[in-house]
Amino acid sequence: MSIIARKSGSKRLLSIMTALALCLGLSACGGRSDGGGHSGDTMQGVSAKGKLGSKPDISFKTPFKVKNQTHQVIQEGDGEVIRDGDRVCARSLALDAKTGKVINSTWDKSSPECSIVISRKSIPAFYDTFKGLKVNSTVAVGIEESGSGSSQATDSYIMALTFVSRSRNLTRAQGQKVTNLPSDLPKISLDDKGKPSLDLNSYQPKGGLVVQPLIKGSGAKVGQHQSVSANYTGWLASDGKQFDSSWDRGQASDFSLDQVIKGWQQGLAGQTVGSQVLLVIPPDLGYGSQKQQSIPANSTLIFVVDILAAY
């Protein structure tokens, strides 16, 4: 888990979309999926009717026996080809495998779910099937969710994902470099790949949140409750010691602004995709009096954040 995330509570938030995210992204579901494009489809017996790219009419014989990670392309799309590295946005229908009844739908929401990135690392069981499909394709995915605690009950779903768009994340900030920066701020330099380095420049925090764009991107504005994909590095303001960096892990981080420290939410909301932002976050908007891994209690934090996508 990224160091930027708030400490989550112990209560498990049970949702079908969470189960799907675990199944797709973390390979938490059992079962297997063979590779090889559409030959990797491992589910049979689910069909879809309706206009491509619109809410499909899903049918299957009930009760349907679900195995985790099994999947079937049930509508071939007619849009752009989905390629390696693409971020895809999807609408979904969740149906009870026992009854066929629709129990959850995102088709009536204002925006689709855009958390799926087409890479073998992020969706290992589905990569060979999803890559090469066209936008407006629909894929049925089997989800089997076991009960917690003393409950032994298992809920089984068919999730019908319709890919409604594709895009490419940026790999680093792109836009207009901001000039005439305040002279008393820390100084930031970038290596050839874009990773930032920090010169404290004798900086003394004044106690409030500092939000200073270094590069102004031309993309969409980030909403207060959206999720973003970002590359970032964080340092302690006391001595300039780095405590975390997505650049060192070789992969951008995705997170909801509702699930990060307040300084991130307040500092990134309203910025534009493509921007690079310097944040100086006081303890009351960071981790306060609680020590977090290598971050001492009551620390002021400095971040440089490249906003690569918002969804």
**Biggest sheet descriptor:** 7 strands, antiparallel
Order of helices and strands: HEEEEEEHEEEEEEEEHEHEE
Low-confidence spans:
7-15, 30-40
Work out the number of β strands.
17
State the share of residues found in helices, binned by percent.
under 10%
Question: Structural class of the helices, strands and pairings?
Answer: mainly beta
Counting copies of identical and different chains, the oligomeric state is: single chain
* Overall radius of gyration: 22 Å
Q: How would you describe the shape?
A: elongated
Average pLDDT confidence is 88
Number of DSSP helical runs = 4
Distance between the termini: 20 Å
In terms of DSSP E residues, the strand content is 25-35%
Keywords, separated by commas or semicolons:
311 residues; mainly beta; seven-stranded antiparallel beta sheet; six-stranded antiparallel beta sheet; 35% strand
Q: Explain this structure to me?
A:
With 311 residues, the chain is mainly β. It is built from 4 helices and 17 strands. The strands form 4 sheets. Strands 9, 12, 13, 14, 15, 16 and 17 form a 7-stranded antiparallel β-sheet that branches. Strands 3, 4, 5, 6, 7 and 8 form a 6-stranded antiparallel β-sheet that branches. A hairpin with a 7-residue loop joins strand 7 and strand 8. The longest helix is centred in the N-terminal third of the chain and has 10 residues, at 16-25. It is elongated and about 70 Å long. The model is unreliable at 7-15 and 30-40 (pLDDT under 50).
SSE blueprint:
Elements: H1 16-25, E1 46-49, E2 57-60, E3 71-75, E4 86-96, E5 102-105, E6 113-117, H2 127-130, E7 138-146, E8 154-168, E9 176-177, E10 187-190, E11 196-199, E12 210-216, E13 227-236, E14 242-245, H3 246-249, E15 253-256, H4 262-268, E16 276-281, E17 301-310
Antiparallel strand pairs: 1-2, 3-7, 4-5, 4-6, 4-8, 7-8, 9-12, 10-11, 12-16, 13-14, 13-15, 13-17, 16-17
